[in-house]
Amino acid sequence: MASKKREIQLQAVINNQSLWDEMMQNKGLTVIDVYQAWCGPCKAMQTLFRKLKNELNEDELLHFAVAEADSIVTLQPFRDKCEPVFLFSVNGTIVAKIQGANAPLVNQKIITLVNEERKIAAGEMVRPQYHEIAFVDSDSEDAGELSCESVDQIYTVVIIKPDAVTARKVREIKEKIIKAGFVTEAEDKKPLTEEQVKHFYSQTVDQPDFEDFVSFMTRNLSYILVVSQGKEKQPSWDESEVNSETESKESWDEQQEMAKPSRMQGNLQQYLEIQQISQFCDVEENITNTKFIDVLIPDFKNVRGIKFEKTLALLRPALFNERTEDVLNKIQDEGFKILLQRQIVLSEEEAKTLCKEYENKDYFGHVIENMTSGPSLALVLVRENGLGYWKQLIGPSNVEEAKEYLPESLCAQFAMEGLPINQLYGSDSLEAAEREIRYFFPPQHTVALIKPHVTQEQREEIMNIIKETGFDITQMKEILLTEEEAEKIYFKIKRKAFYKDVLDVLAEGTSLVMILTKWNAVLDWRRLMGPTDPEEARLLSPDSIRAQFGTNILKNAVHGASNIEEAMQTISRMFEDFVPENLEEN
Questions:
Q1: What does the pLDDT average to over 36-41?
Q2: CA angle at residue 378 from 373 to 380, to 5 degrees?
Q3: In this predicted structure, what is the pLDDT of residue 104?
Q4: Is 520 annotated as a binding residue?
Q5: How far is 31 from 66, CA to CA, in rounded Å?
Q6: 258 near 181, Cβ under 8 Å?
Q7: Beta-bridge partners for 308
Q8: Contact, 332 vs 338, CB < 8 A?
């Protein structure tokens, strides 16, 4: 309890606009940790702040605070950011900003500003004319106690149609929409229900071919995208001294160039037409009532802006050999879900790629020798703002810096004797994460079938389970499996005595046939399905799909291929135009 009390005394807690305004009356330097409600303040920096408070001994001159961006109107531009931000206020003027838990940079900035204040107080220097960093949105109204919810947010819903999903146009369309200055608020890939189609396309329900259109949209995958108009970045940010090295003038120029299309009066439909991709999408603009969106994405108001990100994590050999369980427990305690994991012995080339940042160090050869000495553990982790959170959690790249500045980081906690580098690795960007995950967990395809006896509600539950366990539903079709069509899937058992019974079950209604993609997809789908007999499944694998939704050995809810050869044969027969990407058989 005493420790908690010291923590509160060290940093004032600012969680509303009134407390923010009061804090800005502080004399001297106030260091403000701006945090998001979902992750809390940056605990790893508190040791540094306490150390500086004791060493500098300037209670009247140096103050620390934590400020929740979600609750303070002034901090609205910092909401939904995945890395910590530190603001530096001198006598109520924000003079500097540092992004990321860069302990040496924060340490240097505090000491510099405190020394300036000391010299000013002693009459040894004149107070500099600071360029105040303005971070209030230019369009925001009178701040006061109003929250951003008091102003109607305008949304645009884009439905990328099934033929575009099948043609793998989704990524291209999303990238162009983002380049146009729009921000993704929510997204989902799924077949629309009849209710959802009639809701979104209500203006065309009287057209003669509308029922055929409904059938098309409900039997295939669509991609739903909810976006809002992004704010243009303000050039007044003074980041020349204190920004991380990853930010450069080139990236600023690129961001400015990317923002240009957003000045097209906010008309996304017009922009898509100019980009010649409007034929793949249907757009509904100027939506202020979230109930309209709730029909397509349930509970949108609570899920909007939540960005679940995947990252690659790696436990290097020494750590994997000695403290795997401790690390995995820590990962789960921090709210990550482990989607995939595998042991892998790195080649020298792979080790050099992952350790490139150390190549000019004297110990580089020793690091590579250690990295190739035994198995590492590769993981795919996912959570809200997962990439930035993982990088913040693991801390600096070398142990000496971690122990001095961030002793609570995983780098310091899991340091191994004689090894100077962080024993945990994380991807540097979302692009790098995607590339590294595909490399260490090459995708594999399998075929999945949801049988006719499964209700629409149960179908949706099964599809949610599929997505939550890391599968991508790459393609899908709803089809009545006639004897001819059924043979494309069940060709291995067509001469069995019970095959006619299988055909009778399939003839009861339409089935949902899917291509599922994931590393180790065939085995993982069979494990997720569970034993063939639902009674046995409920005994041996109660969380499996067959245990939850199967009724007997014929009506056991789902079917899947036994091996990769069978999967690819079935896919080529059921989805003749499908071309697998980077297919791995192992």
A1: 79
A2: 170
A3: 83
A4: no
A5: 8
A6: yes
A7: 384
A8: yes
Convert the pLDDT of each residue in 48-83 to its tens digit: 888 888 888 888 889 999 999 888 888 888 877 767
Q: Per the residue annotation, which of 63, 445, 453, 559 is the catalytic one?
A: 559
Phi, psi dihedrals of residue 96, rounded to the nearest 5°: -160, 160
User: 131 catalytic, yes or no?
Assistant: no
The angle at the Cα of 383, spanning 381 to 389, to the nearest 5 degrees, equals 85
Write phi, then psi, for 321 (nearest 5 degrees): -70, -30
- For residue 476 the two structure tokens come to 């899908």
Helix (H, G, I), strand (E, B) or coil at 509: coil
Question: Would the annotation count 498 as a binding residue?
Answer: yes
Main-chain dihedrals φ then ψ at residue 515, nearest 5 degrees: -100, 120
Q: How far is CA 220 from CA 89, 261, 294, 475, 506, in A?
A: 55, 32, 21, 8, 19
Closest CA to 100 of 290, 246, 278: 246
Establish whether 556 is an annotated binding residue.
yes
Question: Mean pLDDT in the chain?
Answer: 85
Q: What is the DSSP letter of 71?
A: G
Q: What angle do CA 192, 196, 199 make, to 5 degrees?
A: 150
Helix or strand run (H / E) with residue 571: helix 564-574
Strand partners, 156: 227
Max Cα–Cα distance, the chain, nearest Å? 99
CA distance 24 to 72: 13
At residue 133 the predicted structure's pLDDT band, cuts being 50, 70 and 90, is confident
Q: Backbone dihedral region of 516: left (phi > 0), alpha (psi from -120 to 50 degrees) or beta?
A: beta
Please check if 546 is assigned to a binding site. Answer: yes
In this predicted structure, what is the pLDDT of residue 531? 96
pLDDT value at 103 more than 90:
no
Residue 38 CA, distance from chain mean position: 14
Q: What is the pLDDT of residue 581?
A: 66
**Across 266-307, where does the E strand assignment appear?**
281-287
In sequence order, the β-bridge partners of residue 227 are: 156, 184
Pairing between strand 11-14 and 62-68? parallel
pLDDT tens per residue, range 182-215? 889 999 999 999 999 999 999 888 889 999 999 9
User: In the β-sheet with 424-426, what is the strand arrangement from edge to edge?
Assistant: 337-344, 376-384, 308-315, 424-426
What span, in angstroms and rounded, lies between the C-alpha atoms of 242 and 96? 7
Q: Tens digit of pLDDT for each residue in 456-485?
A: 999 999 999 999 999 999 999 999 999 999
Does the annotation place 532 within a ligand binding site?
yes
Closest Cα to residue 284, out of 224, 207, 330, 374? 224
Do 575 and 445 touch, CB atoms closer than 8 A?
A: no
Q: In this structure, what token pair is assigned to residue 236?
A: 């007044």
- DSSP summary character for residue 398: B
Q: From the centroid of its chain, how far is CA 543?
A: 26
Q: What secondary structure, in 3-state letters, does 172-194 show?
A: HHHHHHHHCCEEEEEEEEECCCH
Nearest Cα to 268, choosing from 140, 186, 137, 159?
159
pLDDT per residue as tens digits for the range 291-304: 899 999 988 888 88
Phi, psi at residue 496, to the nearest 5°?
A: -75, 155
Which among 185, 9, 35, 29 has a CA at the least distance from the CA of 111?
A: 29
Query: At 479, which amino acid appears?
Result: I
Report the chain's terminal Cα–Cα distance, integer Å.
Answer: 52
